[in-house]
Amino acid sequence: MEKVNVNLQGVEFESYMPQIQTCVNCYCGLCVAYCPALEETKDESLSARGLSQIMDGIGRGELHLEDLPDEVIYSCTGCRWCEWNCSQNTPLWVTQQGDRSTKVSGATMSEIMRSMRVEKGDVPKAVKDALDGIARFGNPYGRPKEVKDKWVENLGCAFNGEDTLLYVGSMVPYEDRSAEMAEALIDILKKANFPFSMIGGNELDSGALPRYMGEEGLFEDLVEKEIKQFKEKGIKNVVCLSPHDYDAFLSYYGSNDIEFKHYTEVLLDIIKDKKIELKKDINKKVTYHDPCYLGRKHNIYDPPRDILKSIPGLELVEMDRNREMAYCCGGGGTGLWYELPRVHMNYTRVDQAKEKAVDYLAVACPICLQMLDDGVKSRDYNIEVKDIAQIVLEAL
Amino acid sequence: MAQAITKEISEQLKSQIGEGKFSDQKYSRITYRLSHSPETLMFDLDDFTPGAVVWPESVEDVQKILQIANEYEIPIDPVGGRTSSADSEGIKGSIAMDFARMNKIIELNEKTMRFTAEAGARVSDCLAYVAKKGYMILEYPTMNKTSMLGSRAAIHGYNKYENRWGSSGMHIKGLEVVLPTGDVLQLGRGTSYPTKSVVGYNLMDLFIGSRGTLGVITKVTERIIKTPPAYHYGIMAFKNYKDGIEAYIDLRNAGAHIGPIWRAKSYNRWLLKQAVEGMMGAKWPDDVEQLTDYHILGEEDVVAATEKHAIDILKAHNGFWRDDLPDSTFVGRMHETMEKYMGMAALGSDRNKDGGLGERIVPYDANIPDGNLVEFYGEALAHWHRMEDPKVYPNLSKRMRVLSPGAPVPTDEGHTKNWALGLASYTPKWNEEARQEYYDWFRKYAEICWKYGGSVTATHGYVPRAIEIEILKKELGDNYYNLMRQIKDVIDPKHIMNPKTKFRF
User: Fold this and answer.
1) Are residues B322 and B345 located together in one domain of the fold?
2) Searching chain A, which residue's CA lies closest to the CA of residue B352?
3) Which of A372, B30, B381, B472 shows a CA-CA span of 20 to 30 A to B79?
4) Close Cβ partners of B25 (under 8 Å, ≥ 6 residues apart)
């Protein structure tokens, strides 16, 4: 067996092999069905079933990391379809057994291989740059913390001792579309007199991004640092802009003495409590794209839809692939940073939206926002990709 | 003698079909070597590793691949969903032909009530497509999210609607097949083709169930029906398997004349007990041994009347449902999605050595006529357990065990699929002694099946490869086998088409 020094959440590589053997033996193929990496390429090597064979091959010493092209290692976006649909990993089982890292999915196998690449110091440049930025500055763009400090200060949201923190994640404010999404949410929260503050440049990446990139150590380091400073600042509630941060905190820390929420849950409460009034008609046909880490991972399907339904004039229609069956935007894993020639999930997803002749494609995740916006522009579709917060703000 | 895929042959394939449709990379070949079949547990994995993988995108691609393979005598392994327990494993040195890119839905014709798609169309996609227009195809395998329409025809699989509608072949109205020479055949029956010809043979049925041994199916036409407006699911528990099975038989016979019962099944408690206790943390009552359930589809008033009739039948055989049984909708859902339920049962089984790791479920179906079922069951049960006896099988007993002590699942035209779920293990590594003991066990199992009018080559149809011809000859007779062999020799004289099964030189 190839000497592999990989440790995911305290679990050694060898510990995964029996579970990989189960995948090899099971062979029911449910993990293959509707895997977006497979849908894009029709190449089973990129799906969970194929990856289990490949991992088994590595374990047997038949295959080596050098034999595998980037496409095999970096196509999986961690969309969790295979995990959700797995015959041995039913939702019931996942609920009872907890964290996904104790089970094997396409995502965990990809992360193991990515960890092996990190270990060998052989990482695609785009991924390396993002990792370096996170390691040095806490954000994938390698921008200094002062930028975020100033942005938060200008918004008047600097930390003021409130025990509710708005956590906007490491893309904000460095990436324009994510920043606009966050600003829309902040505007709504202020109008609703929702008590919160932010920690500016002290806010680091939650660890979600490096984890997908194979830097498990950095994930643990970052999430520990974040939790530590939340506690030191007396934070009791964290409202996450991104489902990925929400997932990273919950999967690592749980919800012991800090309650983590995705912003759509908070926004729905604000609307239900009539803290804001949705006055303007939005006479648009809208479809909602379920982010993988909100939907399949955390079963949050209805709050975003309920928000959209509460907007006067708005017609909400579903894409054929919705809720548990939702197609990935392609930005998970390393998708946002590292484009692979055969994998264009964002194009496929906007094609699915186009089939419904919508005006707006609504999202609830900064990664989905970027990927689908890019998709719409590449396809030259007359669809606006907007975050739910932006649509709500439009209706105020 | 098959030739290795040389660089020259690889280049020829790439130039003919395009570089992006071919791979001889090791990781690709390893990806396509395994299947659900237990065969791969017993031998070295290298024996199943193809020499190359191709992804044809058109019938013209398939023709070109077959012509090259035929010229150089390279085995062809048509790949579908690979969830079949028989014959779906890879072939050493072959060209594995993945049909995932030939997945276009071609037509739904409401006048002829026919649906046509390319062979690689996923069954679940086909079901969803016709459902949107208010129709159903009758192709509904358990693994419908993975299975491809072409491979359903190739294996002549069984369906959820089997009681009423039969197996795959009964729904197929047309096939497009590419022969090893590259010639394309259009085969069919029904609206577009003669139902019965007095001047020729039924060639389409020759290819249905042929498992890629004669040609490659590239297009399938199936019949459709209007989606029935009403559906009801029912289930009852029984304190002994005899009551449960007899209830099933009456239910099925009633369905045969009153019509709208689309499927009834009877399950031994083992699977549900595993699922419920292992996964839900609930207790399965010790006195419940058998479950019988049914699906009724049809017009609303007919479904309502049939439901009442079905309940009367089950109650007449002491059927019941109690508060200490799990929610019947949960049970029903598990029945609907057998795949999850089998996986859960396997994983949660106290029969597993390593918590379900490193082992594979091996289904043994006997296809016994219902009338012989009870007698068969007693004898087969003892034999199933014999594989675990170290005095009888010192090597086999270390590698296989009976996961389920037999779960009679009556289906299909009065024959019963009897599930004994064996567990085959990777470890310890299989040796020749273990294989020989397994063949001995299987031969005796086949004798028991035949004694009660059953078949070991139907439904799941797994027969160990090494004794497949011997078993086929015994079950079908020498003349039958020899005629099949002659047909094979005429259509595929170089034996390149899926040569691992049935017709080896």
Assistant:
1) yes
2) A22
3) B472
4) A67, A69
CB spacing of A57 vs B146 below 8 angstroms: no
Touching check for A72 and chain B: CB below 8 Å? yes
Could you read off the pLDDT of A112-122 as tens digits, one per residue? Answer: 899 989 988 99
Residues of B in contact with A26 (CB under 8 A): 36, 343, 346, 360
Selecting from B82, B100, B124 the residue whose C-beta is nearest the C-beta of A27 gives B82
Strands A315-317 and A285-288, sheet pairing: parallel
CB contact under 8 A, B82 and A29: yes
CATH of the domain at B246: 3.40.462.40
Length of chain A: 396
Tell whether B343 is within 8 A of chain A (Cβ): yes
Contact B78, B498 (CB under 8 A): yes
B213/B78 Cα distance (integer angstroms):
9
Q: Any chain A CB within 8 A of the CB of B363?
A: no
DSSP-derived secondary structure for A54-116 = HHHHHHTTS--GGGS-HHHHH------HHHHH-TTS-HHHHHHH--GGGS--HHHHHHHHHHH
B22 and B6 together in one domain: yes
Q: What is the largest CA-CA distance in chain A?
A: 64
Mind telling me how many Å the CA of B83 is from chain A's nearest CA?
5
Residues B21 and B53 in one domain: yes
- As for the ipTM of the complex, it is 0.90
Q: What is the pLDDT averaged over residues B307-334?
A: 84
CB-closest option in B27, B35, B358 to A27: B35
Q: Quick one: closest CA in B to A92, which residue? A: B279
Q: Which domains does chain A have, with CATH numbers?
A: 7-122 (1.10.1060), 130-270 (no CATH), 277-395 (3.40.50)
Instruction: Answer yes or no: is B76 within a domain.
Output: yes
Nearest to A54 among B23, B30, B82 (CB): B30
- Cα separation, B137 vs B123, whole angstroms: 9
Nearest chain B residue (CA) to A86: B340
What residues 286-325 of chain A have any CB closer than 8 A to a CB of chain B? 320
* Whether residue B332 is found in the same domain as residue B183: no
Subunit contact A21:B357, Cβ cutoff 8 A: yes
A32 touches chain B (CB under 8 A): yes
Residues of A in contact with B124 (CB under 8 A): 33
CATH of the domain at B53: 3.30.465.10
Q: Which of A178, A184, A245 is nearest to A388 (CA)?
A: A184
- Residue in the block written with tokens 């699922």: B275
User: Which ranges of chain A have pLDDT less than 50?
Assistant: 1-3, 90-102
The span from the CA of B217 to the CA of A102, in Å, is 41
The candidate with the shortest Cα–Cα distance to A2, out of A72, A55, A58, A51, is A58
The residue range of the domain holding B135 is 1-227
What does the pLDDT average to over B110-123? Answer: 95
Where does the pLDDT of residue B385 fall: very low under 50, low under 70, confident under 90, or very high at 90 and above?
confident
Q: Mutate which of B21, B339, B425 to test chain A, going by most A C-beta atoms within 10 A?
A: B339
Is the domain of B91 the same as that of B205? yes
pLDDT band per the 50, 70, 90 thresholds, residue B366? confident
Hey, are the CB atoms on A34 and B342 less than 8 Å from each other? no
Nearest CA to B186 out of B222, B219, B208, B224 is that of: B219
Please judge whether B100 and A27 are an interchain contact, meaning their C-beta atoms are less than 8 angstroms apart.
no
User: Residues B63, B165: one domain?
Assistant: yes
- Give the total number of structural domains in chain B: 2
- B29 touches A: beta carbon within 8 Å: no
**Statement to judge: residues B185 and B260 lie in one domain:** no
At B273 the pLDDT is 72
Q: Can you tell me the distance from the alpha carbon of B503 to that of B505, in angstroms, rounded to the nearest whole number?
A: 6
The partner residues of B116 in beta bridges, in order of sequence, read B107, B221
Q: Is residue B476 part of a domain?
A: no
